[in-house]
Fold:
Amino acid sequence: MIKVNAMGDKCPVPIIKTREAIASLGGGGRVEVKVDNEIAVQNLTKMANQKGYEISSEKMGDNEYTVILTVGDATEETAEEAVCTPDMRGDSVVVISGDTMGNGDRELGEVLLKGFIFALSKQEKLPLSMIFYNRGAFLTTEGSESLEDLKSMEAMGVEILTCGTCLDHYRIAEKLRVGSVTNMYVIAEKMTGAAKVVKPC
Amino acid sequence: MLKKEKRLIITFSTTTAAFKAEKNAKAAGIRGRLIPLPQQISAECGLALCCLPEDEAKIDKAEIHGGKRYFIEI
Structure:
C-alpha cells in the first residue's frame, strides 16, 4: 500500500498526489490518502467513481480523514485534468426517529430503513446533517448494519448526530460508532433551521 | 451517484425469500446485505441481496435461492 499525505492541501492537489501514487503502483494495489477536509474526500470519491476504483473513507478526527482506494490490475491511469467540484451537501436535514421505516412488519421495516440509508449515501446531493433519536440511536451504534454507509457520508461532510438522552436510556452510549452525541437544543436548532426536513420514519 | 463498485446482485420473487437469503448468507460467512433493488435492474420497488463478486462460489453452496444474478456497478 502506498501512503499519501495530502493534509493541508486544497483541491486539486490531493487528486494530483493520489493519481501520481496510483501511477506508481504499476498495476493493481491500494493507496491510502490522508486529507484534512471533506471536500477533498468528495472529490476523491468522484474520481474513484469515474475510474472504477473501489473506495472507502472514514473521518478519523477533527480535520482528519482517511481515504483508501483499491485499484484493479487492469486499470490504466490516464492523464486528465483534475476537476474540483463544489460541495455535494445540500441544505436538507434527515431525521431518523426509529429503527424501522414505516409501521407494520418489524423485519421489513428494519430492511427498508437500512435500504433508505444505503440509497441516501448514493445520492448526488447529500444532506447537511442526519439526526438520530429514540430507537434511531441504534443505527449509529455497534451492531448497526448502516455504519459503513453512515461513515462514508460523514467523511464527505454530513454531520451525524445522535441524541444523548436516547443513548443513555437504551444504555448504548459506549457503543456509539459514528458521528457525535448531541442534545435537544441542537436537534431543535437543526430542525427549525433546515430548508427541508426529511423524515422517513 | 457515489462510490460505484462492482457487485453481485441477486433478486428475489418475495420479500420473505430475500430476508431468508440474507440470514443464510450471514450464517455461511458471506458478506451480503439486502439493498433496494438497483434501478439499473428494474424500476420496480423490491429488495436484492448485494454481495462481493468473488463470493459467488460460496453463494452456490449456501441456501440462497434467488432469482436472477447480475454483475453491475452500484
